Amino acid sequence: MVNNMNIKSLNIGIIALLLLFTPALSAASSLSISDQSGLVSGGVATVDVNLVGASDIGSFNTVITFNPSLFMVTGISNGALTPVINDTSAGAPLTDLFVAVYNNTAGSVAIAYAGNGLTGSGSVAIITFSVIGSSGSSTLAFTDISATTSSVTPIAITLTTDNGLLTIGDVVVFTTDIYDTNGTPGIQKAEAVTALSDYLFSGTITKANAVAVLSAYLFG
Predict the structure, then answer these.
(1) 117 and 208: one domain?
(2) Is 54 in contact with 168 (CB distance < 8 Å)?
(3) The model's pTM
(4) 123 within 8 A of 134, measured Cβ to Cβ
């Protein structure tokens, strides 16, 4: 007879393990943005878009989305790894180009690089936000990502991502009880699936939060 633990494992246990061990299995190169909390209305938030473990990345582009009712982009500059944005000065290398465009109505920042190749770890863009909301949080989510090598025949590169989170006011401490909503003690299957969906599709919780909820469901 299949016991309850086996049923749980068949349902989402494998996904939980994949979440736990994704860093060991994924490609070495990744894009990330660090979280910031304690922001105040009328203040400023400056975030680095970081590229980690790059190896001959000849081109990449991505769109970062944010909540435009809470934050407004006021400026973007190049990072330590990338050339000056839209540099048209005399002597600027024609083979190294970095472009950034933002839309405060849609809540998006598009960045793109093409050049001789990026190697190593460091920032690729620095985004400055004005805090226009009074409270709440906004995920800085990577979408529409592509990257290739700088070789004559470019090879596609997979970039993993770690979204950022901007929070106006003090950060709320996450507990698995947030997902215990059906009145039954402990995390149930539907609640665990909701947490997984929030991480994978909406980006409203972190991987660590999702794993905590899944672990509470699987192991109690």
Answers:
(1) no
(2) no
(3) 0.68
(4) no
- Using an 8 Å Cβ cutoff, are 44 and 71 in contact? no
Q: Which residues pair with 140 in a beta bridge?
A: 164
Tell me the residue range of the domain where 133 lies. Answer: 34-168
Q: What is the full DSSP assignment across 149-188?
A: ESSSS--B---EEE-EEEEESSPPPP-GGGG--SSSSS--
Rounded CA gap, 180 and 136, in Å? 22
81 contacts 122 by C-beta, under 8 angstroms: yes
**Percent of the chain predicted with pLDDT > 90:** 46
- Give the Cα separation of 126 and 218 in Å (integer): 40
pLDDT tens across 146-188, in order? 999 988 898 999 999 999 999 998 766 788 988 988 888 889 9
Residue the block writes with tokens 């990026």: 118
Q: Let me know whether 164 and 67 are in one domain.
A: yes
Phi, psi dihedral angles at 130 (to 5 degrees): -100, 135
Residue 75 and residue 41 share a domain: yes
Whether residues 64 and 103 share a domain: the answer is: yes
pLDDT number for residue 93? 58
**197 & 97 share domain:** no
Domain identity same for 50 and 121? yes
Tell whether 142 and 123 lie within a shared domain.
yes
